[in-house]
Specification:
The chain has 12 helices and 6 strands. The protein has 383 residues and is an alpha+beta fold. Strand 5 and strand 6 form a beta hairpin. Helix 1 crosses helix 5 and helix 2 crosses helix 7.
């Protein structure tokens, strides 16, 4: 049982094993740590930093056995029903103060002012930098002290958290894994409300031409809606100018406003510039060098019917020869590339323009010259 001030007093209540539950909420993690995303792991790390680690582990078995019957998340409040050893489940309440409306308005302006956060949130993701942004706005995303959490359970155990509260914390972390916006909903903004506010702020900033905060803190000026007093478009600077964002105004403008600040293309520009990349194209990334016989290393040894281990060695030599660069291969016309006969002397190669008959006649003359006889004498001797 939890005391009204949230402190633990007394000793652990002694009960038998919990009643078996059918259809309860079971933790997806069956062993090891619970929590896959950075925000769920961070949530459990914060709880363990409050010296609750040993108490939390007592509820891990409850979470994995499916003893939690119900889990609901509302602004500032998490409620659950956990089945223990008694017939009726114990009601569980975990309270965390939701942010006031004024604080959420400041947070939403910060999020809408940076395209990085807006894009990630609209994609259903919470970037790790979000915790720093919330802290900078004076709204820590996670509780900073255990006193910020009001934990209540209907069990007779005086420990805080009891195993029923601990099981609720673990399933709450997995609920954050499944839907990260549940963490923000606990702080006072549902997913639909937050995304609608971000879209509205960015759309309003695009209409008014408010500068947009780019990642890194730089502010890009937007295009002027009226005529340019400095002259035609060709006299404007080729790149947007940087400057500080106006105080008290949203800094979201969107990519359309940034592109609108660029000068329009002049009709006098040559047509061939259409194919020129506006920014330098990065070099092709280098490829990793792989051994020619890498495939043979991945395959198992062949059976005796197709050659056994000897086949692998022969294929390895062939793969290495085929994988050699052209510069390492023998060049045409070199001594290594000249065919030889059995006596070791080089054989003559037929000229490309010779016919088979001409080749035979030339070889016959060559053989007669080697014997020191003329073709006619050689033929008369054979007769």
């Amino acid at each position: 049982m939890t005391t009204p001030d949230g402190n633990a007093s007394g000793r652990f209540a002694e009960f038998g094993p919990p009643r078996r539950v059918e259809g309860g909420l079971r933790a997806r993690s069956t062993r090891g740590a619970i929590g896959q995303s950075w925000w769920s792991r961070r949530f459990l790390e914060v709880l363990e930093s409050f010296a609750l680690g040993t108490r939390l582990t007592r509820g891990r078995a409850y979470a994995r056995r499916g003893q939690v019957l119900r889990l609901d998340i509302a602004p500032g409040l998490v409620t659950a029903a956990v089945q223990g050893s008694r017939p009726d489940p114990y009601p569980v309440r975990i309270e965390l103060a939701a942010y006031p409306v004024e604080l959420w308005a400041r947070i939403e302006a910060e999020l809408a002012g940076q395209a990085f956060f807006s894009a990630r949130l609209l994609a259903g993701d919470l970037p790790t930098e979000l915790e720093e942004l919330f802290a900078g706005a004076g709204a820590p995303l996670f509780p900073s002290t255990v006193d910020e959490l009001t934990q209540r359970c209907g069990c007779p155990d005086f420990a805080v958290p009891c195993k029923h509260l601990a099981a609720t914390f673990y399933l709450l972390a997995e609920a954050f894994d499944a839907d990260p916006f549940q963490l923000l909903h606990w702080r006072g903004r549902s997913r639909a409300e937050l995304l609608d506010r971000l879209r509205m702020l960015r759309a309003a900033a695009g209409e008014t031409g408010t500068p947009e905060t780019v990642t890194g803190g730089a502010h890009v000026a937007t295009a002027r809606s009226g005529p340019d007093p400095a002259g035609p478009a060709t006299s404007r600077p080729s790149t947007p100018t940087a400057g500080p964002a106006p105080t008290g105004r949203s800094t979201a403008a969107g990519a359309a406003r940034v592109l609108g600040a660029l000068p329009a293309a002049s009709p006098a520009d040559p047509v061939d510039r259409f194919w020129v990349a506006p920014v330098p194209v990065p070099d092709r990334p280098p490829t990793l060098a792989t051994a020619p016989d890498l495939l043979l290393r991945q395959l198992g040894p062949p059976g005796p019917a197709i050659g056994g281990p000897g086949l692998v060695e022969r294929l390895r030599r062939a793969y290495r020869d085929l994988g050699r660069p052209r510069s390492d291969l023998p060049t045409t016309g070199s001594a290594e590339a000249t065919p030889t006969d059995r006596s070791g002397s080089a054989r003559s190669q037929p000229a490309p323009s010779e016919s088979p008959h001409q080749t035979g006649v030339r070889q016959q003359h060559h053989g007669a010259d080697r014997a020191g006889q003329s073709p006619g004498q050689h033929g008369h001797r054979r007769q």
